[in-house]
């Protein structure tokens, strides 16, 4: 991935699509980790809670955005925008999925899928805010 060096604060600027792609890849690694953990512990009678499947990909996906936040100057407005965008997309996606597939609503599948979809959207918003602030 092509990173550009910003001369003003010597931080590395990344394009929004690069951060979105790395967030999606990190989420997939998190889901793979959850699947392997479930397969390993299933014979012993431990089945993970749905929160485990939501938390692990979120922790894996936070890595690329966290690295970008640490390398540049503090972007508190961008962090707030990411939080609001992530919650909005997750709730809208979850409500739409629960409306479209009522049998899955009891298992919170829509909200789970909404959080998986909203993490890359939030990463793109953060990269857009950060690049916009570096240009100005």
Average pLDDT, rounded to a whole number, is: 79
For the biggest sheet, the summary is: 2 strands, antiparallel
Helix content range:
over 70%
Shape: globular
The ordered string of helix (H) and strand (E) elements is EEHHHH
Gap from first CA to last CA:
24 Å
Number of strands: 2
Estimate what percentage of residues fall within beta strands: under 5%
Strand order of the largest sheet: 1-2
- Uncertain runs with pLDDT below 50, 5 residues or more? 6-11
Radius of gyration: 17 Å
What count of helical segments does DSSP give? 4
Question: Helix/strand/pairing class, anyone?
Answer: mainly alpha
Using brief descriptors, characterize the structure shown:
single chain; 136 residues; mainly alpha; 4 helices; 2 strands
Structure description:
- This protein is mainly alpha-helical and 136 residues long.
- It has 4 helices and 2 strands; from the N terminus they run ββαααα.
- A two-stranded antiparallel sheet has the order 1-2.
- The longest helix has 27 residues, at 109-135.
- The protein is globular.
- The relative contact order is 0.18.
